[in-house]
Design goal:
This protein is 71% helix and 0% strand. With 114 residues, the protein is mostly helical. It has a single domain, classed as Recoverin, domain 1, CATH 1.10.238. GO terms for molecular function: odorant binding. Keywords: Signal. Pfam families: PBP_GOBP.
């Protein structure tokens, strides 16, 4: 799950104006500490959900904020077709809880970036 840290950090670096917001959210949610120390999907998802809520990517109920997703995706990906593919493949979040949805969203984005 260390790839989640790399993904969030890559996203933060590429996000320009959003960099400080994303970095602050990751720090507030202890992203580095939790992901490096845990292999528990629920615990990792809890941390990723915390970050996603703070940056407006996900809502309290675990649903995806589609406008933020599309806007932010353009910051780390200049290929519009790939952005649309990632969005289409990842927008219908799977999971019984917001934390599992957040975990699955991060995993889906990572898997579809290639």
């Amino acid at each position: 799950m260390k790839y989640l840290i790399a993904f969030v950090l890559l996203f933060a670096v590429a996000a320009g104006d959003r960099h400080d917001d994303i970095k602050a959210a990751a720090e507030a949610c202890n992203l580095n500490k939790v992901v490096l120390q845990s292999q528990d999907k629920e615990k990792i998802g809890e941390t990723v959900f915390c970050v996603n809520k703070k940056i407006g990517l996900m809502n309290d109920d675990g649903s995806l904020n589609e406008n933020v997703f599309k806007s932010d995706a353009k910051l780390w990906n200049s290929d519009d077709d790939l952005t649309q593919k990632i969005f289409n493949n990842c927008k219908d979040l799977k999971g019984d809880t917001p934390t599992i949805k957040a975990y699955n969203l991060a995993k889906c984005i990572k898997e579809n970036r290639n």
